[in-house]
Specification:
Blueprint (H helix, E strand, L loop, with lengths): L4 H4 L7 H7 L41 H13 L4 E5 L2 H12 L5 E5 L4 H14 L2 E5 L4 H7 L5 E7 L11 H10 L3 E5 L4 H4 L9 E5 L13 E5 L2 H14 L5 H12 L1 H19 L5 E5 L9 H7 L6 E6 L2 H11 L4 E2 L9 E3 L20 E5 L5 H12 L1
Parallel strand pairs: 2-3, 2-4, 4-5, 5-6, 10-11
Antiparallel strand pairs: 1-7, 6-7, 8-9, 9-12, 11-12
Helix pairs in contact: 2-3, 3-10, 4-5, 4-9, 11-14, 13-14
The protein binds ligand P1T.
Length: 391
């Protein structure tokens, strides 16, 4: 099951679900196993010094279970090369160190995932890579935050976590490229099923595969996908040099999840639409934030660049922080917990949980905000649970 970059890449023009299920792996030559075996091996016998079988030498550099996942990730993002990491933040760290050097500058979203902000503010900054937050929905503001010659990356999430702000990927790619920078898109919230940033001009896609790609809340992981082979070499070198790779067990679980991404995402979207219809206009709710609502400021851009609007909803409640905390605690079908993108519905209070690390900064989120990751349970049960939890 040796893979080459050609096996990984865009030569595979089958439909999304076919790629998700078949790309990256041919049934095992010896046994015909239809799924990639979990190669629990740190090293590989060499046929004479340097006589590697299929290029495998040591599992930090390459492991066949990970290779299969990496090929599938490249295929579903319509990229050339995919790289699988131990977590989303490990993937992000590898991008920062592979593509910036001390003295460089990055524009980041002013409502990024709290952990991404922390990585830039508490880790990359010490390494010498500076950052400026800018609103991803405002192309001119992002352009104004770029420092020509110094800015190496324009980094966006779209939709953002947790405010579900939409950035226009095509326009932001132009802003980045005009300044000689690269556009990095964190595609975690959309998933590759709903949005493929490389096809819209982005240079680098990053994921927390912990979320929709894995899809079952049973594994932490990250991914990077690129088209440009020089970028691939730089990411690949740093993946090996820094070593934050996905292990074979994690790679297997993530790959298994990816195969059902399309059907899961459609159900996530169906259920989210039902929940939005219930929340929107309810007097206990002061604002519903969902890119599928015509009233969302990014609705038109989202409709252009996303297949559907996703499974994430944020909303604000009348009654402030105490009510928001109480709703989170009263919900039963929605499990109170961090993370998102799994089959089970989750509810959380970003201000005190996922985004506690941005408290007191420009990125602070409203304290009456609740975030839902709408799962694929029976929609009626989800609506009834929220109705009860709202009190
Ligand atoms: O948790 P990890 O796999 O390291 O991924 C980090 C990450 C990166 N990008 C986005 C958009 C994310 O949402 C995350 C992780 N987010 C959560 C854990 C959360 O509950 O929002």
């Amino acid at each position: 099951m040796t893979q080459t970059s050609a096996d990984q890449g865009r030569a595979n023009k089958a439909g999304f679900e076919t790629r998700a299920i078949h790309a990256g792996y041919e049934p095992d030559a010896m046994t015909g196993a239809v799924n990639p075996p979990i190669y629990a091996s740190s090293t590989y016998k060499q046929d004479g010094v340097g006589g590697l079988r299929g290029g495998y030498e040591y599992s930090r550099s390459g492991n066949p279970t990970r290779t299969a996942l990496e090929g599938a990730l490249a295929a579903v993002e319509d990229g050339e090369r995919g790289f699988a990491f131990a977590s989303g933040l490990a993937a992000e760290d590898t991008i920062i160190r592979a593509l910036t050097a001390p003295g460089d500058h990055v524009v980041i979203p002013d409502d990024a995932y709290g952990g991404t902000y922390r990585l830039f503010d508490k880790v990359a900054k010490l390494w010498g890579t500076a950052h400026s937050p800018a609103p991803v929905a405002d192309v001119d503001a992002v352009a104004a935050a770029v420092e020509p010659g110094r800015t190496k990356l324009v980094w966006v999430e779209t939709p953002t976590n947790p405010m579900l702000t939409i950035g226009d990927i095509e326009a932001l790619a132009t802003v980045a490229h005009d300044a000689g920078a690269l556009l990095v898109v964190d595609n975690t919230f959309a998933s590759p099923y709903l949005q493929q940033p490389l096809t819209l001009g982005a240079d680098v896609v990053v994921h927390s595969t912990t979320k929709y790609v894995g899809g079952h809340s049973d594994v932490v992981g990250g991914a990077v996908v690129v088209r440009d082979l020089d970028l691939a070499d730089r990411i690949g070198f740093h993946q090996n040099a820094m070593g934050a790779v996905a292990g074979p067990f994690d790679a297997f679980l993530t790959h298994r999840g990816l195969k059902t991404l399309g059907v899961r995402m459609d159900r996530h979207c169906d259920n989210a639409e039902r929940v939005v219809a219930f929340l929107d206009g309810d007097p206990r709710v002061t604002e519903v934030i969902y890119p599928g609502l015509a009233s969302h400021p990014g609705h038109e851009v989202a409709a252009r660049q996303m297949k559907r609007f996703g499974g994430m909803i944020s909303f604000r409640v009348a009654g402030g922080v105490e009510t928001a905390l109480a709703v989170c605690e009263r919900a039963e079908v929605f499990t109170l917990g961090e993370s998102l993108g799994g089959v089970e519905s989750l509810i959380e209070h970003p201000g005190r949980m996922t985004h506690a690390s941005v408290a007191g900064t420009d990125l602070e989120v409203p304290d009456d905000l609740i975030r839902l990751s709408v799962g694929i349970e029976t929609a009626d049960d989800l609506v009834a649970d929220l109705d009860r939890a709202l009190g």
